[in-house]
């Protein structure tokens, strides 16, 4: 359950426990797709201040395999990451492969070697337990947008049914069993259909999940559609005390808009993907490090930033590293973007405590105005 310590409108500051680890919200979770964030170590993430990292079940179950990760002590021990791990269910990747599914589960082929696998609600929980996850996600059915009403309804209804199966399996195997005591979050689907979203939220809210996630958004729909759906979901939650997680949203303005509507947790590959392409996030908007005029600049990526890259290197030097293909450039830009995201969430918390969240949103919108939406 989330302990709320401050509110500004629907925006909230608080904390909750996951398997004995404290997570303060609102928070951004860096994505360690294969157990670690590309080019960074677990200690890099710890130094940046993050309290929870997301790892992808789909990739880890295929390589190196859930059993190996389990034998090496779980994702945290495997990647030397001492804080909380949230694992997705694998569903998003599996459904993006146009996999075939039935009421029982979903069949898919490995992108690595073409081997065939099945994921069911029970198996998804079992694998996440083997991965040593602190926060598991129930397997859901992701539909594309746009989709016809029948497809959206089918996906939302099956997600609810699979949520029940996940809960039964989770409580029989994971909760209060052995040394670890992870959480299980349920996922609200429903596409861009307000009535269906409201129905799916009521169904998910009524079940004994430890947190509620909103899935199936940030898949290319206009931002207004996304914010409308967030409002529909939060409107059904009243004072529900559980953490709320908006999956796959990582653009700064989108995050703050969602925070102001009562969302607590976010994840996205965007900040580190942008960094690897030479784009860094600053309080003045995006900076394209590869731009020619950065070549002769002696100032850091962002004045006042104390990250490893800004504290030690000029823009000119990092541009040079990008130009010569030195992987150090990817690392320094990734560290900066994650440091900036961490600061953004800290600023959101302070703004909620001070009652000035609206002002922060205007400021960040101003910085990224004209940049277009930053999608994952
Ligand atoms: Zn920096």
Q: What attributes does this structure have?
A:
376 residues; single chain; 43% helix; 2 domains; TIM Barrel; 17 strands; alpha/beta; binds zinc ion; 3-stranded antiparallel β-sheet
Report a brief summary of the structure.
The chain is of the alpha/beta class and 376 residues long. It folds into 2 domains: 3-268, Queuine tRNA-ribosyltransferase-like (TIM Barrel, Alpha-Beta Barrel), CATH 3.20.20.105; 275-367, no CATH class. The protein has helices spanning 42-48, 57-71, 74-78, 91-96, 121-130, 149-173, 194-205, 223-235, 252-259, 270-276, 308-312, 315-323, 328-354, 357-368, and strands at 3-8, 11-18, 21-25, 27-29, 31-32, 52-55, 84-87, 100-101, 106-109, 116-119, 135-137, 183-188, 211-214, 244-246, 265-267, 279-282, 285-288.
Number of domains: 2
User: Could you report the average pLDDT, rounded to the nearest whole number?
Assistant: 95
The helix/strand class is alpha/beta
Helicity level: 40-55%
User: Mind telling me which CATH architecture of the largest domain this is?
Assistant: Alpha-Beta Barrel
In the CATH scheme, the class of the largest domain would be Alpha Beta
* CATH topology annotation of the largest domain: TIM Barrel
Gyration radius from CA atoms, angstroms: 20 Å
Question: Which consecutive residue ranges, at least 5 long each, have pLDDT under 50?
Answer: none
Strand content: 15-25%
Number of β-strand runs = 17
Task: Give a verbal description of the structure.
43% of the residues lie in helices and 18% in strands. The chain contains 14 helices and 17 strands. Helix 2 crosses helix 5, helix 12 (315-323) packs across helix 13 and helix 13 (328-354) runs antiparallel to helix 14. The structure holds zinc ion. Residues 301-302, 305, 307, 309-310, 336, 339 line the site of zinc ion.
């Amino acid at each position: 359950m989330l302990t709320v310590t401050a509110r500004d409108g629907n925006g909230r500051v608080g904390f909750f426990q996951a398997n004995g680890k404290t997570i303060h919200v609102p928070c951004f979770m860096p994505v360690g797709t294969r157990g670690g964030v590309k080019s960074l170590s677990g200690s890099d993430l710890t130094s940046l201040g993050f309290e929870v990292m997301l790892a992808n079940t789909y990739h880890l179950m295929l390589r190196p395999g859930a059993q190996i990760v389990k034998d090496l002590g779980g994702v945290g021990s495997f990647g030397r990451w001492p804080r909380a791990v949230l694992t997705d269910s694998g569903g998003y990747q599996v459904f993006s492969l146009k996999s075939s599914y039935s009421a029982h589960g979903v069949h898919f082929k490995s992108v690595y070697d073409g081997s065939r696998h099945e994921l069911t609600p029970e198996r998804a929980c079992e694998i996440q337990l083997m991965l040593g996850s602190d926060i598991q996600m129930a397997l859901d059915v992701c539909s594309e947008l746009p989709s016809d009403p029948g497809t959206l309804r089918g996906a939302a209804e099956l997600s609810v049914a699979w949520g029940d199966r996940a809960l039964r399996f989770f409580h029989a195997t994971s909760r209060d069993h052995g040394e670890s005591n992870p959480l299980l979050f349920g996922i609200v689907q429903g596409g861009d259909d307000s009535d269906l979203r409201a129905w799916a939220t009521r169904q998910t809210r009524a079940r004994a999940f430890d947190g509620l996630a909103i899935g199936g958004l940030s898949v290319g729909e206009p931002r207004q559609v996304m914010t409308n759906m967030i409002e529909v979901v939060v409107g059904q939650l009243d004072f529900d005390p559980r953490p709320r997680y908006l999956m796959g949203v990582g653009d700064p303005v989108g995050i703050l808009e969602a925070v102001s509507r009562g969302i607590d947790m976010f994840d996205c590959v965007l900040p580190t993907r942008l960094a690897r392409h030479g784009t860094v996030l600053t309080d003045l908007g995006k900076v394209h490090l590869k731009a020619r005029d950065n070549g002769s600049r002696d100032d850091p990526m962002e004045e006042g930033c104390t990250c490893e890259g800004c504290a030690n290197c000029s823009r000119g030097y990092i541009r040079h590293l990008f130009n010569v293909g030195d992987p150090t450039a990817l690392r320094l830009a990734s560290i900066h973007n994650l440091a900036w995201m961490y600061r953004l969430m800290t600023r959101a918390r302070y703004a909620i405590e001070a009652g000035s969240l609206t002002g922060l949103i205007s400021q960040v919108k101003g910085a990224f105005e004209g940049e277009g939406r930053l999608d994952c």
